């Protein structure tokens, strides 16, 4: 275990070194993050300027969901995506073989291979959004609410990682589709809205198929003080379920890669 | 055909530093060093010549080829190819030349090579009937058959390289720049490509400038070689003359009726003879050019010779010899470069320009 | 390079480009799935407008607007900026520059060749538009329909020119990809792609009307949903502005490309 921790640090350090190399990136990444954050917020404020309450959500309450979204987006784009996009690249040019030759778990190796350290700016932005939202509401979140939200976030990150792993595993079978890895990131944008605003089929999809509800809506509800045991349990169940499925599919994908490659 | 005078190309590159803190520092303050890829190259090549461009990695071969193809602009010096100044990239010039880069490909990855051929014919303005004739001829010559109708991604490396050549020759260029065209190919495929390129040169009277790591390529194709090292031409002349200059010896290979020791053979052949390869009854011996005759007659009279041959030493060995001398000099030069980086850092505050 | 030789090469370049677009149909499908944001925005706005229209947008108008947005982006979308970026960084631009067809013309022709496949992707949504109640939210003026084609063509050109201009930054800076991301962020908001521009507060609307982005999506969409029915004069003014921005963008491209290539030649790929 400690050996894996050391390995993680080595890879993290390499990513930081890489990120430092490009001076223009240093400034630009900050600007890009700010821009993306504001594009997240502009349509939001426009919609809530037209209506004070949408689907049972007031503006400041929905803003807590946006805060959760921004933080999770940072995790997705900073820690999950860079490595897993790297796998797609490696499958295409055949260098995945080098990874498979190493005496460590391949999934661990590939999913810690690259980080984008600048994306931690998202956490700062998210905290600012939380601050604004709770000032608007006039009350801070309860300690219990923060604890539950943190637990749900952990589950959400597990699911994010698992879904991305599933997408990457798919790339083993359809090697030629090289933008497949961006699909989830694009669809994830929908998670910035409270899942209960959607109706009909979309709501079902966003709760169970691509479970955005447990990623941003439920933690936000917990922060807002609505402690719901059912959603806590469902959160944990989804995390375990997605993790198990994605691990199985990953191992199967690896087997098919090993037998198909020359 | 190709005239190059005092060609020079220098790049300014940022220094990448190891270590997290050094890297953090370089975010704010960057250091540069000037790398001279081509220092002073002059050469002149006639129409229809086949010239091999030799030199160790980083000697400036590819940079020179890219300048000849018009992709890079010289820092100073002049070059003209068939009356054109390459860096102007006139369409008429582009229609006369072709640059094949062994590691880069132009074939469309997911379509059959024929589509790329069609595309190039259209882009290079090749009349329809001439295109069809050229294509069929090239496909025939390279024995490609139906290979050109399969998507490129399904082809083997060798097939791909053949198709890459067809795509490059569709417009029948008069000047061919080949950079490592046989990289990664097996021996028979290398031989096929060499024969093909030679034939193209003879039929079309095309001029050929080739760089390769495989000395066989150069040995088989190029009567004339130009050696560059550290951006300068260190030799320009015939291949045989190069062998004579660098290794003024001949290689005599002896096959004997029985096994013999190296000492025995050296003793029998007399002064100035050195055994360089030894495998039981087969020996390779190096002799000064002046003493070859004497050595051969001694061998025939004193040893049970069943077979004998006299050749130049392999080009491979000549190159190794040639660049051994320069590697010592290079170590000193690197020390110089480090000193220069420090000097640069003093005088060059960050200007955003070269990010 | 003469216009004649471009015209001679065009049919083959288009044919091969189409063959490539067909070969990459799976990727196209994935790309279509990543551009479904208008549907999410439609769901959000519909929920917001559940008890009465927002501005001029009731349920029907919202459906017509966002479905049209999706269709317009399918047709006018461009990836040239990313392509140039990759070609410069990986050195594949060298191969393109060795051909006697201007690389930018080649990119444009490849884009044009992909239009049939992209139109195919948009077709189901067009069917939905015409077959459902959203149809009543579309234009009924033949003049509008005719000028929609002009506007779509200009939007296509404008988008590809902006992509060229930003793509050419790859000659000057390592990270032109970031600039593309910033552009995309601005584009999403300022083009009317995520939010109809007339829902913005008046001050923001005035600011947006001074920018080129609304000519990339909002103008064709608004023609599509009948905003200019019977107002040919107003539409002519808008189209003139759209053409003006397209020319400005073209000028920027010419500048960025010539300087970029000069620099590429000086510093290498």
Structural overview:
The complex is a heterotrimer of chains A (262), B (355) and C (269). Chain A is an all-alpha fold. Chain A has 11 helices and 2 strands; from the N terminus they run ααββααααααααα. Chain A is globular. Chain A starts with a helix and ends with a helix. Chain B folds into 2 domains: 2-243, P-loop containing nucleotide triphosphate hydrolases (Rossmann fold); 248-311, Alpha-Beta Plaits (2-Layer Sandwich), CATH 3.30.70. In chain B, helix 7 links the parallel strand 6 (175-179) and strand 7 (207-211). In chain B, helix 4 (113-123) packs parallel to helix 6. Chain C is mainly α. Chain C has helices at residues 3-23, 25-34, 37-48, 59-76, 80-90, 93-97, 103-131, 142-167, 176-190, 202-209, 218-224, 232-267. Classes of the chains: A mainly alpha (262), B alpha/beta (355), C mainly alpha (269). Chains B and C meet through helix 3, strand 5 and helix 4 of B and helix 1, helix 6 and helix 12 of C.
Name some characteristics of this structure.
heterotrimer, A: 262 residues, mainly alpha, two-stranded antiparallel ribbon, 78% helix, B: 355 residues, alpha/beta, Rossmann fold, Alpha-Beta Plaits, 2 domains, 6-stranded mixed beta sheet, 4-stranded antiparallel beta sheet, 12 helices, 41% helix, globular, disordered C terminus
